[in-house]
Amino acid sequence: MPQDIGENGEVKFSYPSSYQNTQRGNWGYEPKMTSEYSFGAGILFDRDVYGPDVMGDALPRPETLEECNEVFNQTGRMLRDAFQQRPQVGN
């Protein structure tokens, strides 16, 4: 809704949304800390609950309206940055 978007284009109201991460436990996967990965694979990760950067500190899923909004706003910034690179990539 128009009233859910601020003048700067960031959302003021959003619904709970998240990306897959090591603690969600869906799609047939059990939640697992990265430090519990086999054969030392946990050293590849900088934290036990790992997911996309756009999730910030809202892992495994956002709980508050502010966290939900931040996931949307971080995703918007990521996509903006990606599409701004398009002219540099070529046709």
What does this structure look like?
The chain is an all-alpha fold. The chain has 2 helices and no strands. The protein has helices at 65-84, 86-89. It is flat, with a radius of gyration of 16 Å. The chain starts with 64 loop residues before the first helix and ends with a helix.
Main sheet overview: none
SSE order:
HH
Report the sheet-strand fraction: under 5%
- What is the count of helical runs? 2
Q: What's the overall average pLDDT, rounded?
A: 90
Helix/sheet category: mainly alpha
Through-space gap between termini? 35 Å
What fraction, in percent, of the residue positions are helical? 25-40%
Helices, strands, pairings?
Blueprint: H1 65-84, H2 86-89
Summary, kept brief:
By secondary structure, the protein is mostly helical. The chain has helices spanning 65-84, 86-89. 9% of the residues are buried.
Features:
91 residues; mainly alpha
